[in-house]
Design a protein that fits this description.
The chain is mainly alpha-helical. It contains five helices and two strands; from the N terminus they run ααααββα. The chain has a two-stranded antiparallel ribbon. A hairpin with a 2-residue loop joins β1 and β2.
């Protein structure tokens, strides 16, 4: 098998998103134990808070999978973002001080940006195709 090389921007983007989603997961775990406080999420029902923690953690795992050259990571992110959108729609009536609907377009836009970033090429091979055809190694110059 041919050795794969990842475009430097893809590596940067995947690490950036992994770190942000890891911090988000920690924040939502913290919000899970709040009964009231600074986060509007704290006033919602427990099952909704658990759902958000699980979907955020799934996005984090999906980015780790993408860093490990696993195409399934994109689909994990896609499914968990769909669950996040559904939970935002359910949460909105419970938190009138916070407009949850405004995050839906940015979530959808983020999925499109991720997909197009995965289409960047290195050695005339898109990263999306490289994930299933070559040995997993990090980008080297």
């Amino acid at each position: 098998m041919k050795e794969a090389k990842r475009h430097g921007f893809i590596t940067f983007w995947l690490w950036f998103c992994t770190i942000l989603n890891g911090l988000g997961t920690l924040l939502f775990i913290w919000a899970l134990f709040l009964t009231d406080g600074i986060l509007p999420l704290a006033n919602s029902q427990l099952w909704l808070r658990i759902l958000i923690v699980v979907s955020t953690a799934a996005v984090f795992v999906g980015y780790i999978m993408l860093l490990d050259w696993r195409k399934a990571g994109f689909f994990v992110i896609l499914v968990s973002q769909i669950v996040s959108i559904a939970s935002l729609i359910v949460i909105a009536p419970f938190s009138p001080s916070y407009s949850n609907y405004i995050t839906i377009p940015s979530t959808i836009l983020g999925l499109f940006v991720l997909y197009f970033i995965l289409q960047l090429r290195h050695d005339n091979l898109p990263y999306w195709d490289a994930m299933s055809k070559v040995v997993r190694v990090d980008y080297k110059e």
